[in-house]
Amino acid sequence: MADNHPEDEPSLSVVIQNTSSVKQDELFHCHKMSPGSCFLLPHGTRVYNKLIEFIKKEYWRRGYEEVISPNIYNMKLWETSKDAASYKENMFTFDIDKQEFGLKSINGPGHCLMFEHRVRSYRELPIRLAEFGVLHRNEASEALSGLTYTRRFQQDDAHIFCTKDQVKREVKDVLDFVDYVYTKFGFTYELKLVTRPEENTKDFQRWEEGENDLVEALQEFGKPFTVNRGVGALCGPKIDITLSDAMKRKFQCASIQLDFQLPDHFKLRYSPSDEEKKENVMIYSKVLGSEDKDKGVRPFMIHRTVLGSFERMLAILLDHYKGKWPFWISPRQVIVCSSSNNENDRSYAEEVRRQIHEAGYHVDVDTTDRNISEKVGEAEIVQYNYILVVGDEEVATRQVTALLRDSSCSDRSKVPMMSVDALLDVFKLRIVKFL
Questions:
Q1: What family is reported (predicted)?
Q2: CA nearest 149: which of 306, 35, 41, 18?
């Protein structure tokens, strides 16, 4: 989006260095028939869905409401949001019934329509609307790059509508959210407060109060931050969050943006408390105008992402883990290998696979007539987290020999056998602990 838009994703390029892992994992591919839109293959979709599932669970825990908004809007919406004036050339537009429409490139304006579709009360706030909607941006062909710079993508986008007094707490909660998620992936990160651009000579009071809220939220959060003065977006102050992966490369994926403009553009309002009316009548009468100050109060709006674009995050994680995905997010969690080609071994291998599959894990089976060393060696190359070997002894005891990826023990005789139920308990623990 335009540089002053809060939902703009940074123009960075992630170079996937571990290309052999891409081929082995079969996560995605690109095709000239749809430039800028990636095809996620089954294994890529597994990781993609795990990322979304992870964020959805956190939304449930943190009081977000998931919504779904249209993909196509009349261009009048983008004129109201002021995006048409600055960004129309980067949108996919077309005519329907002699009216101009555009594919959704951001979620914020649609969420504003959801907020204003009925009268809102201060008792409802904060309202946290989250969406994984498909977005399209008509980026230049020369800028397109695999998963990292695309025309079609999804992100963990959310908008928080709140009162002025709730801003600091909501920002602090988002910072806690980011910290929780990034810690699970082993990312470190840096925080940067971005303040009012020098060319903005309006809304000094709102900017000053907004910046103070962000500073206080950062201070309460307790981690160091820097200040980038005078280069912020026109809509409000923000916090940029730059993560570092295992190779110490830096990417901006998360952001927290106060937006003073969209609520004004859409004339959003809510019914305030009596106390709020007394405290803020002068401020908001200037914002709303004296003719409609009694009709309600403008909400504050916070744009925020945590992972950002799921496509880009998939590329970052691919290099971060070097293809060795943790069990909880791995596209290849388990493979069951029969140690021989006899019917009993093959039948039991299939039985174990079904049991693990029904428990909800990604599991494959290899009952080919190759020797067991070849099967295990191939499974190790493609980075299965667990390689389960079953032979005569395992069949007789209804157990499995579980070889863990990167285990220093290559001698099967030294690996204790265990029941499938006991192994499933291990799996559950690894999922809970994000291992």
A1: Belongs to the class-II aminoacyl-tRNA synthetase family.
A2: 35
Q: Residue 177: which of 257, 260, 256, 259 has the closest Cα?
A: 256
Residue in the block written with tokens 């537009």: 93
Q: How far apart are CA 352 and CA 34, in angstroms?
A: 40
Contact between residue 214 and residue 225 where contact means Cβ atoms under 8 Å apart: no
- Predicted confidence band of residue 159 (pLDDT cuts 50, 70, 90): very high
Backbone φ/ψ region at 303: left (φ over 0), alpha (ψ -120 to 50), beta: beta
| Phi–psi pair at 240, nearest 5 degrees | -90, 140
Residues 6+ apart with CB under 8 A from 403: 376, 386, 387, 388, 389, 409, 412, 415
Tokens of 280: 């803020």
Q: Report the predicted TM-score, pTM, of the whole model to 2 decimal places.
A: 0.89
Round to whole Å and give the CA distance between 403 and 386.
6
**Type of residue found at 220:** E
pLDDT digits (tens, 9 = 90+) for 244-269: 888 888 988 999 999 988 999 999 99
Which has the closest alpha carbon to 286: 201, 203, 213, 207?
203
pLDDT of residue 14 exceeding 80, the answer is: no
Q: Using alpha carbons only, how large is the chain's radius of gyration in Å?
A: 26
Question: Per the structure block, which two tokens stand in for 120?
Answer: 């809102």
- Tell me the sheet residues that pair with 417: 401
